[in-house]
Write a structure and sequence with these properties.
about 280 residues; alpha+beta; 2 domains; 3-stranded antiparallel sheet; 2 helices
Length: about 280
C-alpha cells in the first residue's frame, strides 16, 4: 500500500488522540487512587464539636474518664465497643504539639497512643469518618480534643489520710465523677469562698504552694459542663477560673495525675471536689 502524507497525518492524529484520552482517564481516576498523606493523630474541624482529634483517616478518637492515671482501664468486653487507637507514626499535623503525644503498654503487652496522658480510643458506633456518636456516653466518654480547658474524671477518692471516700465524703469504695484540668489533675473548691470570691489566697501568694490557684482561662469544655457555669476572676493580679462561682484550686500534694488527696486535708469537707452536682457558691 502506498503511504501518503495524508495517511501519516491521520495516524499521527489518531495516536495523539489516544494518548490524550488515556492521560485524561488516568487523571480522572487519580482521586480514587491518591494515597492519604496524613500520618498519626490529626486535628479535624467538626461542625458540632469544634476541633477534635482523629486518626489519619478522619475517624474520631475519644478519652475515657476512668483513665485518670494515664493507664487504660478499658479491658475485656469494653474493647468491643471502645477499640484501642495506636499509631507508631509521628503526626503530620503541624497544629499538634508533638510533645503532648505518647504511648503506654497495656496489660496484655499491646501499645496504645495517648494525648496529654489520656489513652485514646475509637467508638464502634461511629460507622464512618466524621461521626461523633460516642461523646458523653454514660458521662464518662468524651470526644478527644486538643484544647480542653477542663476534663471529667471518674475515680475512687483517696484522701490525704489514705482512706477511701464516696462522693458524700463518707468512707467507702466507689468511683466519683469530678472535674480536672485537661491533663487529669484534680481541681478543688474551698468551702469558705463565696461566689466568684477567693477567700484563701494571700496577697503575696505565700500559701499558693499548698493550694495553687487554677489559672488557665480558655479552652474547650466537655459536654457535661455548661459555659454559663464558667467564669474568670482576678486574684491579686492573677487570673483564676471559677465553676458555678467556686474559685478552682489544685492541691500541692497531689503528686501524680489522678491523685485527689486534698479532699481530706486538713479534714474532710474543707476542700471538696467539684462536679455537675455541685451547688452554686453562696453570694457575698
Amino acid at each position: 500500500m502506498k503511504v501518503t502524507k495524508k495517511h501519516v497525518k491521520l495516524v499521527f492524529l489518531g495516536l495523539l488522540t489516544l494518548t490524550m484520552f488515556s492521560a485524561c482517564s488516568k487523571n480522572d481516576a487519580a482521586p480514587d487512587n491518591v494515597e492519604n498523606k496524613n500520618r498519626g493523630i490529626q486535628i479535624s474541624a467538626n461542625a458540632q464539636f469544634g476541633n477534635i482529634l482523629t486518626d489519619a483517616n478522619g475517624r474520631t478518637l475519644y478519652f475515657f474518664s476512668n483513665d485518670t492515671k494515664g493507664i487504660s482501664t478499658c479491658n475485656g468486653n469494653c474493647l468491643a465497643t471502645w477499640p484501642v487507637y495506636h499509631s507508631n507514626e509521628t503526626s503530620t499535623d503541624v497544629k499538634i504539639d508533638k510533645s503532648l503525644m505518647g504511648e503506654i503498654t497495656r496489660e496484655d503487652g499491646s501499645k496504645q497512643s495517648t494525648f496529654k496522658g489520656w489513652p485514646l480510643y475509637y467508638y464502634a458506633g461511629d460507622g464512618q469518618s466524621g461521626q461523633v456518636k460516642g461523646d458523653a456516653i454514660n458521662k464518662i466518654w468524651y470526644v478527644a480534643k486538643p484544647d480542653y480547658l477542663l476534663m471529667v474524671a471518674n475515680a475512687q477518692l483517696v484522701g490525704h489520710d489514705g482512706k477511701n471516700y464516696l462522693g458524700d465524703y463518707t468512707e467507702g469504695i466507689a468511683k466519683t465523677m469530678y472535674l480536672t484540668d485537661d491533663t487529669g489533675r484534680t481541681l478543688y473548691a474551698f468551702k469558705p469562698d463565696k461566689f466568684n470570691k477567693n477567700n484563701y489566697t494571700a496577697a503575696d501568694f505565700s500559701n499558693d504552694p499548698i493550694w495553687p490557684i487554677f489559672q488557665k482561662e480558655t479552652g474547650a469544655l466537655p459536654s457535661l459542663i455548661r459555659t454559663t457555669d464558667i467564669a474568670v476572676i482576678s486574684v491579686y493580679g492573677k487570673k483564676q477560673l471559677t465553676f458555678k462561682g467556686w474559685p478552682l484550686y489544685y492541691f500541692g500534694q497531689d503528686i501524680q495525675h489522678g491523685d485527689n488527696k486534698g479532699i481530706s486535708f486538713p479534714r474532710v469537707g474543707v476542700w471538696p471536689i467539684v462536679n455537675d452536682n455541685t451547688t452554686v457558691a453562696p453570694a457575698n
